[in-house]
Design goal:
The complex is a heterodimer of chains A (185) and B (276). Chain A is mostly helical and 185 residues long. Chain A is 75% helix and 3% strand. Classes of the chains: A mainly alpha (185), B mainly alpha (276). Chain A: InterPro entries: ECF_substrate-spec-like, UPF0397.
């Protein structure tokens, strides 16, 4: 059972994916101008990996990647947000079968489906779960953490909508479509 | 872009001699206590204790100063934000109100309770940070993966973590190469560009990085498959070390600490220590 779930390719995808997540999360963030808020490109990448490799890989890339990023660059993992990164990866990954990116088709219908899923997941993750955990674990003021969560959630939604969709369509183009060959007469 | 990052520092010290499993377990216990408690006495004790362990480990403050500086800035901003958003949070928690300085008719008045609350928030970080730093710089990455497996994480996931640690420097180098070559073509990622343009330019670096990483995945998984990875239910680790006496003593000490600090924190039914 377990062996079917975690193929070698998925394991490697988790490892390399987490490494890329760390590097993007550290070096490829674009400040918006408002202090402490960034367009974090690593979430666009996380969405791509979740759609290609499925929920388990997506969840673990988010979890391991975020924990390592926090630990290596900031000294200590911020657990409440690490957990949410994992959840976001996992739940976006649930759309894998429906989108079936390996088929090489990423049309308007699938783009809409992908974005609906990611908006719902990001909204619940960053605006509800992350601040609630912050209050429970760190006992920070409620209005502060919810504002942080809403800002982070909106930014992540925009990043995934722009970058995630772009990455997925590029990836889809690199896959061969079935029946794309025509016979020369 | 020579950004410093935390990595393993080789030393000869008692902390280094502990097995990775012990350090991982101790770190988990430590984080749990620091997460659950808000009791000033426990926090102060943990803080002093962690400074003491730091001394024993022979790691110099200078070697981790860049992270500490960053955390201090973060804490300052965080503290200011807490005060701006909720200047009477302390009053709400401790239930009394001692005004020190009256500003703006009440809401932003400086109270003793608020100061104490924010002192606790700050202290909470200071108890976790030295422990986390220490765990990172005294644990060999390969041994870390072995330890994860030892405490019950599936070895496949432990191996994924090892892969991530192994490939972070490689990917960082790739990122740097791609970024420099794109900049040579006139793509600007710095503050001088408009935000929308910067997002587009960032994509021109990220896309090659991701595509090359996807190729890497293919290559590595083929290599692992050829070597029969995942065939057996268990695997051995080159870096795994057997438990010594010192490991058992340390673990006992930490478990006692966990129980005592949780008892002190919760025996009056509140995770905050109230001196007022």
């Amino acid at each position: 059972m377990k062996r079917n779930q975690l193929s070698i390719k998925t394991i490697v995808a988790i490892g390399i994916g987490a490494a890329v997540f760390v590097i993007l999360g550290r070096f490829a963030v674009i400040p918006t101008g408002v202090p402490n808020t960034n367009f974090d490109t690593s979430y666009g990448f996380l969405a791509l990996m979740a759609i290609i490799f499925g929920p388990v890989a997506g969840g673990l890339i988010g979890l391991i990647g975020h924990a390592l990023k926090d630990a290596i660059f900031y000294g200590t993992p911020w657990w409440s947000w690490v957990v949410v990164s994992g959840l976001v990866g996992f739940f976006i990954g649930l759309a894998t079968k429906k989108i079936n990116i390996e088929s090489g088709i990423f049309n308007v219908k699938k783009i809409i489906l992908f974005n609906v899923v990611q908006i719902i997941v990001n909204a619940i993750g960053w605006m509800v779960i992350a601040p609630t955990l912050d209050v429970l674990i760190y006992a920070e003021p409620v209005n502060k953490v919810y504002l942080q969560g809403i800002v982070a959630g909106c930014l992540n939604i925009v990043t995934v909508a722009v970058l995630g969709t772009l990455l997925l369509s590029i990836y889809a183009k690199s896959r061969g479509q079935s029946g794309s060959l025509t016979k020369d007469v | 872009m020579a950004v410093e990052m935390l990595s393993y520092i080789e030393r000869k010290s008692p902390v280094h001699r502990l097995t990775g499993v012990t350090k991982l377990l101790c770190f988990l216990i430590w984080s749990t206590v620091a997460m659950l408690t808000y009791d000033t006495r426990v926090l102060l004790f943990l803080f002093l204790f962690s400074v003491a362990i730091f001394k024993v480990s022979k790691i110099k403050w200078k070697e981790v100063a860049f992270v500490l500086l960053f955390i201090l800035v973060f804490l300052l901003i965080n503290n200011l934000a807490i005060y701006v958003f909720s200047p009477q949070e302390g009053v709400k928690i401790y239930g009394t109100r001692h005004v020190l300085l009256d500003i703006g008719g009440g809401r932003y008045s400086l109270t003793l309770e608020q100061l104490f609350y924010q002192f606790n928030v700050t202290l909470k970080y200071f108890t976790v940070i030295p422990a986390a730093l220490l765990f990172l710089v005294t644990t060999n990455p390969s041994e870390f993966a072995a330890s994860l497996n030892r405490i019950g994480v599936s070895y496949k996931i432990a191996y994924a973590v090892a892969l991530a640690l192994r490939y972070i420097p490689d990917i960082q180098r790739d990122f740097r190469n791609i970024s420099l070559s794109q900049q040579a073509r006139g793509i600007d990622m710095s503050r001088k560009e408009k935000l929308s343009k910067r997002l587009k330019n960032a994509a021109s670096i990220i896309i090659p990085l991701i595509l090359s990483s996807l190729d890497k995945i293919e290559m590595i998984s083929n290599a692992m498959e050829l070597r029969g990875f995942g065939k057996n239910k268990k695997r051995t680790w080159y870096r795994a070390r057997p438990f010594q006496k010192i490991d058992i003593i340390t673990l006992m000490l930490f478990i006692i600490m966990l129980i005592v600090s949780l008892y002190i924190t919760f025996y009056d039914g509140n995770r905050f220590y109230n001196p007022f």
